[in-house]
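Not sure how to ask, but would you mind making up any protein sequence you like and the tokens describing how it folds?
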Amino acid sequence: MKVIYPKNYSSSRNKVILDYCKWKKVLHIWACDAPYTKEKYTWEMWPLLYREIDKICSDQLWIDLDKKSIEFLNAKKNEFLNSKIDFFDMNKLENLDFKPDIIIFGEVIEHLMNLEIALTNLKKVMSKDTLLIISTPNAYHVLHQINAMLWFENMHEDHKVYFSYWYLQNLLKYNWIQIEKWFFTFLDYNKNILNWKWKIMIFFAEKIFCKLFPSTSSVLLVITKKNDNKI
């Protein structure tokens, strides 16, 4: 079976997400990105998206299970006036006293063992109009392919699975979640913290190679809705 890739490309994952969050109630799941919360805050990776959402949303709730990270971020409360962080288990989302317009499930799904349970729990807090935004590393990212040709992998130690376009699409289809739009894209970060070699390599990947071949970008991002016709 031959699968044709869509050609939607953006060099900025955050820009795609922000386009959907204006004046919306946003639920951000596994928001702290533990155990790297402090490092990513220092590197300007973590706050970039949240600060921008906070400026344009009507309300933003972050939930996580890492108490130390929640305490650390709550100490930065003056930076996020329209947001709050709660200790909450996503397996109990049906008890959440928050009705989101947007759910951001960013770089989470690849950490999970039981994907069907996770998606079922997400649907419990989704109305027919709720948008679920999922982003995850792309198994066919150009740097992964180069590493493979050099006989090694450079991966996050907690990742359980990597997704291709077809695998993610099929997973959502069989869990009755329909894709509204698809993007091949990149994470956003403070490039000033990188040395010149990384800057050149990432510039080449983002601005040249992946612009020509979007399917080799580092991140898969989908805008989805619950398929009420099948549930």
Remarks:
- The two ends are 27 Å apart (CA to CA).
- The chain has a mean pLDDT of 86.
